[in-house]
Design a protein that fits this description.
heterodimer; A: 332 residues; alpha+beta; Uridine Diphospho-n-acetylenolpyruvylglucosamine Reductase, domain 2; five-stranded antiparallel β-sheet; 13 helices; globular; B: 167 residues; Ubiquitin-like (UB roll); five-stranded mixed β-sheet; 5 strands; 15% strand
Chain lengths: 332, 167
């Protein structure tokens, strides 16, 4: 790890000024930045430690929404009873992510900003070509081992998948990113790789995430996060889905449904085609299965990740069945 | 150019002064600068859990924590776990009794993680122990005995805590 200077910010303004300097990086929980510095991917000149700033780690449940300070730890958000009651998928997505130690360290702002686990991105010594690290250098994943690369939102310049779990729930339930001077809908916060995969979000220099706001909804209240992976614990998603469902008063017809996808796309993915196909419909197995296939609309698989094309609709269908199962145990 | 910074760290209730480069992790500060070598370096990339310590009472990975970040916080390592007279912590005793290791390299991290796991209330069943201990890898594969040790220690620790509360 290359040496850097360390600045402990005592106010938000001081932090914002400091990160405007060339080569400055924000340090919060450290689970991404220190890791990537050790890999040689991040080479900060100055590390601006914001983890001691006060007033950015609160969690508040209001009648309209849940707001989460950027420095809240993953474990605090996961264990918050108000969040568990109002939006279980948010809590579940965090509990199924990382390990207990990492959840105690990683902040919510940092969790949103975590970088891809693409092994080519993470290994600059062996793979100099990476358009995300070094624009214009090429993509080592193309023609490489791509089992865990994205099938949605890719370009000829980048296949790297967004590894987030929480982000899948946030995109499903219309979270808003609070940057202090402006608020950005979560779905618009992330950029598709296109021909500039080095640009991942709309964040401008000097901007940082202050917090998140997630509107309450009946769909969020009746929600689940399903994560399928190679190991039962402590592993990134092969495919995941955050699903929330609200039924009409008849208890059978879909009034509102949200479907977010993880482990399969270059950014946290909203499967709006699945949602549109189900709104106004009476749920049964055949309807759920047919709609779930639409999750893979526009998907482009590589040689090693074609399994995701089959897996994702099954994950979506199972998650929908979970939230549509009424208290008597059958489909609603 | 080597830039060093002066730190005063609170480790196991004792103050330590040291001068380190800003990039020095808590793990390297403990092992190389303070010769508290009970905390182990496994992967050094936040994946194996061998370096698990407590900061302000919560289990974290010292390999992904800068030493500079924990100035002003309370750090606890495996060296701080046993009593002043050398009496083993209930989790340490349970690891010995259940033979919950082979080579022993991951053990300090396993024990620090287990102490926190029990304190968090996440040792209620074998399945819960397996889930909440998943951040600690054991290359020898002593997992069954580790789960047994955590289960035994949880049963020893929880009644003791209750007795104290009742007293």
């Amino acid at each position: 790890m290359r040496d850097f200077s360390y600045l402990r910010a005592s106010t938000l303004d001081e932090a914002r000024q400091a990160v405007l300097q060339a080569g400055a990086s924000i340090l919060a929980g450290g689970t991404t930045l220190i890791d990537l510095a050790k890999c040689g991917v991040a080479e900060p000149e100055t590390v601006v430690d914001i983890s001691h700033l006060e007033g950015l780690s609160g969690i508040e449940v209001t009648p309209q929404s849940v707001t989460i300070g950027a420095l809240s730890r993953m474990s605090d958000v996961a264990d918050h009873s108000g969040i568990q009651a109002e939006m279980p998928a948010v809590s579940e997505s965090l509990l199924l992510a990382a390990s207990a130690q990492l959840r105690n360290m990683a902040t919510i702002g940092g969790n949103v900003m975590q970088r891809t686990r693409c092994p080519y991105f993470r290994d600059p010594g062996t793979f100099p070509a990476c358009n995300k690290r070094n624009p214009g250098s090429g993509c080592s994943a193309l023609g490489g081992i791509t089992r865990n690369h994205a099938v949605l939102g890719t370009s000829e310049h980048c296949l790297a998948s967004n590894p987030g779990d929480l982000a899948v729930a946030l995109v499903a339930f219309d979270a808003v990113v609070d940057l202090g001077s402006r608020r950005v809908p979560f779905d618009e916060f992330f950029l598709l790789p296109g021909d500039t995969p080095d640009r991942e979000t709309v964040l401008q220099p000097g901007e940082m995430i202050i917090g998140l706001s997630i509107p309450k909804s009946a769909a969020a209240k009746n929600s689940t996060y399903l994560k399928v992976r190679d190991r039962q614990s402590y592993e990134f998603a092969a495919a995941s889905a955050a699903v929330g469902l609200e039924l009409e008063d008849d208890g059978r017809t879909v009034r509102d449904i949200r479907v977010g996808l993880g482990g399969v796309a270059t950014k946290p993915w909203r499967a709006r085609a699945v949602e549109q196909a189900l709104i106004g419909k009476v749920l049964d197995d055949a309807t759920i299965k047919a709609a779930s296939l639409l999750a893979m609309e526009g998907a482009v698989a590589q040689s090693d990740n074609t399994y995701k094309i089959d897996l994702v609709p099954r994950v979506v269908a199972r998650a929908i069945e979970t939230v549509s199962t009424d208290k008597s145990g059958g489909l609603a | 150019m080597t830039r060093t910074i002066h730190l005063n760290l609170d480790i196991n209730g004792k103050g330590y002064d040291l001068d380190v480069e800003p990039r020095v992790t808590l793990l390297d500060a403990l092992r190389d600068h303070l010769v508290l070598t009970g905390t182990k370096k496994g992967c050094d990339q936040g994946q194996c859990g061998a370096c698990t310590c407590h900061v302000d009472g919560r289990r974290v990975l010292s390999c992904l924590t800068l030493a500079a970040q924990v100035e002003g916080r309370q750090v606890e390592t495996i060296e701080g776990l046993s009593g002043a007279d050398g009496t083993l912590h209930a989790v340490q005793a349970a690891f010995l009794e259940q033979d919950a290791f082979q080579c022993g390299y991951c053990t300090p991290g396993q024990i620090m993680s287990a102490v926190a796991c029990i304190r968090e209330g996440h040792a209620g069943s074998d399945a819960e122990i397996r889930e909440y201990m998943s951040g600690n890898l054991c290359r020898c594969g002593a997992y069954n005995s580790i789960v047994a040790a955590v289960r035994q220690a949880a049963q020893a620790v929880v009644p003791a805590t209750k007795e104290m509360a009742d007293a």
